[in-house]
């Protein structure tokens, strides 16, 4: 990325390098296509209709969302194959889901309990419709998802519910358990694929027509695809990448397509300087359930390895120097690599896009939605 | 707050109890008025024009902002006495500052270095205007602010700069240093007042007409006001309060005017349940530069002291039970006390307001601004 556009930026901001993002999209699409699985990227990372459209045009089967409010925004932009990979609970949510199903070519919904499936069944029945659902299975992440050993019995119950059509199963296998990231991604992906394929087999034996077996996040996505045991992967972060994915061995620093630009606003003493972004700019979900000191800081200052962003207030980021001297001056613009790009973009109403020598401003269309 | 409006909420969301907020505003205003100091609340907490207007109508002298983009939004709503308590660095910022000064009754700007003051001086000179500035002094927080011992010499230089009019000094004295919160707020406030009064005296002796001595955040605000040593306080969080302020001894739980409502979406096993908000709903800046386990969790589940929100993904909040049994069911709505309300509201495009039995939706007008 050229840096001659710096003068046109208002900081603190995030700049996306469109060319790099396109290469990242192509790389994941090629891996999925080569393995013969569908790619259904999670839009949680970018939340922008333009980038979702780009993923579709490059070959993605459809998209994944976490919220119906986000799915609505995506459907408005013309995307018509959407999976909301989240249990739909609450009347306010069900009403919007049923409405969306009525105007979206294909809408698939997550279910992971008798209760949530029952509510969904009632909502679709009431509307005289039939909703397509996938069963979420817990393969070790301990968040949503029916416990693995109970999946067959829940699937049977859901399959019998009127108003619903069970067509698949899905899982998210966290790489971080009890605060310790898995080192062996291939082994984790193999286990993920095998667990899902075994369950699909059991369900088919029970007479349930499981068509889609969906798994895989960004770090595990290509490895899960290569097992040949699933039909679909749902990575999200790969579109931009970040420091976390470099740590996990999936991306290289030069493949990171989004970074911060900040301005040094104060250099009160030699050993620290202040930049114009703090906790309202840099997310602090560095590594879930792990103390922040596990990571080098809330962002990495490019070209200044001696600087550490470890202390912030709401609009103040304090860069401390390991050498006792920051070497920075007031007005200097710095480039900072995000630790986790999904929550970083989620803080912004707009981001900049750098494309073929030009810089423009994009709205983060689906950010800040509730439902 | 009544809970009969729960059915009308879309979760996850923040609900503000207008009546409690009004009482909080009145309480701080009375304390300031009683001590004979100006109250200039920081709008960083609410970022809503309506609440800023309410603070003014109840007696606040003006408002404090961190960003010129936020100040513009406030000025658009008719507020005409604004202090941007932040060094104004970067041409993109200076242009907007000068423009705003031209249309705002009184705009005061922070300066804390020769460099930032020089840039501001040039920008105002070019526009044929004179900008009112206050010198930010570091009284121990080690973020922006000229080092205390260099304040007199910087003030002299700023006072001589064309295009600027130095009328005051200000500081933010953090209660949290090296990760350890100060226990004795009165003592901290006394020190803050004494340092600022001593500096003001030194400056006046040098012939600089220091009119305003501004200090005090929410926990220290009333105590600083009572020292009689400052002319203005700038608290922000007091309007809504939060768990952090209860820990600091400033607020009582019943004075917290803003809380989360979330829905339980999954109860896969007895010992944990999942709610529909995660790291994109609950901020994680629990206590700056302190590991998250210092605090009980990312929010406190009201009425369920055995539940702990310690693990999150982007849209998943995992409530773990200390007793091994959450006792929750799918569809249950929970009320969660925010740890830090300023960064919590900053995640939301809109919040609900509960007022005289009615619930309505308010836009968080000035959130997500860059500059």
How many structural domains are formed by the residues of chain A? 2
Spans of chain A of at least 5 consecutive residues whose pLDDT stays below 50 are none
| CATH fold-level assignment of the largest domain in chain A | TIM Barrel
- Regarding quaternary structure, how should these chains be classified? homodimer
Largest sheet of chain A: 9 strands, mixed
CATH superfamily of the largest domain in chain A: Alanine racemase
CATH class of the largest domain in chain A: Alpha Beta
Query: What is the CA-CA span between the terminal residues of chain A?
Result: 37 Å
What structural class do you assign from the helix and strand content of chain A? alpha/beta
Q: In percent, how helical is the residue content of chain A?
A: 25-40%
Shape of chain A: elongated
Mean pLDDT of chain A, as a whole number?
94
Count of helix runs of chain A = 10
What is the CA-atom radius of gyration of chain A, in angstroms?
Answer: 22 Å
Main interface: chain pair and counts: A-B, 73 and 73 residues
Secondary structure tally: strands of chain A = 20
Percentage of residues in DSSP E strands of chain A:
25-35%
Sequence of secondary-structure elements of chain A? EHEHEHEHEHEEHEEEHEHEHEEEEEEHEE
CATH architecture of the largest domain in chain A, please? Alpha-Beta Barrel
Please give a structural write-up:
- The structure is a homodimer of 371-residue chains.
- Chain A is an alpha/beta fold.
- The first copy, chain A, folds into two domains: 6-13 and 251-363, Lyase, Ornithine Decarboxylase, Chain A, domain 1, CATH 2.40.37; 18-239, Alanine racemase (TIM Barrel, Alpha-Beta Barrel), CATH 3.20.20.10.
- Helix content of chain A is 30%, strand content 26%.
- Chain A has ten helices and 20 strands.
- In chain A, strands 1, 13, 14, 15, 16, 17, 18, 19 and 20 form a nine-stranded mixed sheet that branches.
- The longest helix of chain A has 21 residues, at 185-205.
- The radius of gyration of chain A is 22 Å and the shape is elongated.
- Chain A starts with 12 loop residues before the first strand and ends in an 8-residue tail after the last strand.
- The model of chain A has no long low-confidence stretch (mean pLDDT 94).
- The interface between A and B is large, with 73 and 73 residues.
């Amino acid at each position: 990325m050229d840096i001659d556009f710096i003068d046109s930026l208002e900081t603190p901001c995030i700049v996306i390098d469109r060319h790099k993002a396109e290469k990242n999209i192509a790389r994941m699409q090629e891996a999925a296509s080569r393995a013969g699985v569908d790619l259904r990227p999670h839009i949680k990372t970018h939340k922008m209709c333009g980038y979702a459209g780009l993923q579709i045009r490059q070959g993605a089967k459809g998209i994944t969302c976490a919220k119906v409010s986000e799915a609505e925004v995506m459907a408005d932009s013309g995307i018509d194959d959407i999976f909301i990979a989240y249990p739909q609970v609450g009347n306010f949510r069900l009403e919007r889901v049923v409405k969306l199903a009525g105007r979206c070519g294909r809408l698939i919904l997550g279910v992971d309990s008798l209760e949530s499936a029952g509510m969904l069944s009632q909502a679709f029945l009431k509307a005289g419709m039939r909703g397509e659902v996938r069963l979420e299975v817990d393969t070790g992440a301990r968040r949503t998802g029916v416990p693995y050993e109970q999946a067959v019995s829940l699937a049977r119950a859901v399959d019998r519910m009127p108003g619903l059509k069970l067509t698949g199963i899905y899982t998210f296998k966290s790489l971080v358990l009890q605060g310790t990231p898995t080192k062996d991604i291939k082994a984790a992906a193999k286990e993920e694929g095998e667990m899902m394929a075994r369950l699909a087999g059991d369900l088919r034996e029970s007479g349930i027509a499981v068509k889609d077996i969906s798994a895989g996040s960004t770090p595990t996505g290509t490895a899960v695809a290569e097992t040949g045991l699933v039909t679909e992967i749902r990575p999200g972060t790969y579109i931009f990448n970040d420091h976390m994915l470099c740590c996990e061995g999936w991306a290289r620093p030069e493949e990171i397509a989004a970074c911060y630009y900040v301005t040094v606003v104060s250099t009160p003493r030699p050993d620290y300087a202040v930049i114009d972004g703090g906790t309202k700019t840099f997310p602090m979900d560095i590594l879930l359930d792990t103390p922040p000191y596990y990571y080098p800081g809330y962002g990495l200052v490019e070209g200044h390895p001696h600087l550490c962003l470890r202390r912030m207030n709401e609009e103040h980021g304090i860069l401390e120097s390991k050498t006792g001297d920051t070497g920075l001056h007031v007005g200097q613009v710095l480039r900072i690599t995000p630790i986790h790009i999904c929550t970083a973009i989620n803080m912004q109403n707009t981001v900049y896009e750098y494309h073929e020598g030009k810089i423009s401003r994009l709205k983060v269309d689906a950010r800040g939605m509730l439902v």
